[in-house]
Amino acid sequence: MSVSRPSLRGAAEDSASIDMSAAPRVLRRIIGLALRYRGLTALAIGCSIGAALFSLTLPKLFGHAVDQAHQLLTGGAATAEAAQDALLTTALLVIGAASLRGLLTGYGGYVAEQVSQKVAYDLRLAFF
Question: What torsion do the CA atoms of 79, 81, 86, 87 make, to the nearest 10 degrees?
Answer without folding.
Answer: 120
